[in-house]
Design a protein that fits this description.
Layout lengths: L8 H13 L5 E5 L5 H9 L4 E3 L4 H13 L3 E7 H5 L3 H10 L7 E7 L17 H6 L5 E3 L4 H13 L2 E7 L19 E5 L4 E5 L3 H14 L5 E5 L7 H8 L4 E9 L5 H12 L4 E7 L10 H8 L3 H14 L1
Parallel strand pairs: 1-2, 1-3, 3-4, 4-6, 5-6, 8-9, 8-10, 10-11
Antiparallel strand pairs: 7-9
Helix pairs in contact: 1-2, 1-7, 3-5, 8-12
């Protein structure tokens, strides 16, 4: 366990934005009536570059696009299912399509990936966003696993043009990158190397992958673990080199299984690259549920908790 105290992903990222707004007049912050303590500082210190459009995510996207077309770097902020699904047509036309012909830098900050708003039920939980956002060819989809990697997203957003979706967890999660953030240029980070089996995860599911790998290591089996944090534009040659030695690959995502998410990316990648590995896709059982419980309890119910994944991985390993 890292000695570094976990912090909220959104707070560390918003703090970096607040610091940068004092130095860079291009930065604008737009929110859909969604707050945080750091956001109060942004609103107070930079009122001319802070806009609250209200509960109107469609307008959030169009205002952000207009500012970006005038040369501003825009950070737009809302709850994850609302900043993706409630305004998907505007994202497609005003960001994904328009960015192919006009330079713009718009960064969508979606808070509440997967089950992280656990007590709010399926209206606020977010299982579809990976599928929807990776369907847009010009959208970069970034999914950090702790607050260290989330904070580093700021530099990535400033360094590259185009629309981006930052998929942040709403809960405090243990620190995994105590020695510094991963290389965002590559889009992936190898945490462990294994013999025949590799677990490839994104976001919160990296914690589950490492827990399962620990359990298998205690049984004498070393498995690889890869963090895929750039779901749309990772280094394909590096990913190929890392996956090529394995006979079995397991994808882990806090999104619907078999609905076009990370598993679809890997099924296509393995097929096109003619890798010899078989793939087991672990994700949320495709159904909406209204039960309440802890995140750990809900994860086990839908097949992505550590116990459920460990059982599935063992069965998969034995079939190789």
């Amino acid at each position: 366990m890292s000695p570094i105290k976990p912090l909220a992903m959104r707070d560390v990222l918003l703090y970096r934005i607040w610091l940068a707004m004092a130095e860079d007049p291009r930065l604008f912050f737009v929110t859909a009536d969604f707050g945080s303590p750091i956001l109060d500082k942004i609103r107070a210190d930079f009122p001319q570059r802070f806009i609250n459009v209200g509960i109107a995510e469609q307008n959030l996207i169009n205002v952000s696009a207009g500012l970006a077309l005038e040369g501003h770097v825009v950070f737009a902020y809302a709850i994850a299912p609302f900043i993706t699904m409630r305004c998907y047509e505007q994202i497609r036309i005003s960001l994904a399509l328009l960015s192919t012909v006009r330079p713009m830098n718009v960064n969508l900050i979606g808070v509440g990936a997967g089950y992280s708003y656990v007590v709010s039920g399926p209206t606020h939980q977010c299982y579809e966003d990976i599928t929807l956002m990776r369907a847009l060819p010009t959208m970069r989809l970034l999914s950090p696993a702790d607050h260290i990697s989330a904070e580093a997203l700021f530099d990535r957003c400033m360094a590259s043009m185009g629309p981006k979706y930052l998929r942040l967890d709403a809960q405090l999660v243990p620190v995994l990158y105590a020695d510094g953030p991963p290389d965002w240029q590559s889009g992936l980070h190898v945490h462990r190397r294994g013999d025949t089996l590799c677990l490839l995860a994104t976001g919160y599911m990296l914690h589950t992958a490492l827990a399962v790998a620990d359990r298998l290591a205690a049984e004498g089996e070393q498995v690889g673990v890869i963090d895929l944090f750039d779901i749309s534009h990772c280094d394909a040659e590096l990913l190929h080199a890392q996956l090529a030695p394995y006979r079995g690959i397991v994808s882990l995502e806090e999104g619907f299984r078999g609905r076009g998410g990370v598993d679809a990316l890997l099924f296509e990648f393995i097929a096109r690259r003619r890798l010899p590995a078989r793939l087991l896709n672990v994700g949320v059982e495709p159904a909406y549920r209204f039960e309440l419980g802890s995140r750990a309890e809900l994860h086990e119910q839908v097949g992505i908790g550590p116990e459920a994944v460990w059982q599935a991985v063992r069965r998969f390993r034995d079939s190789l």
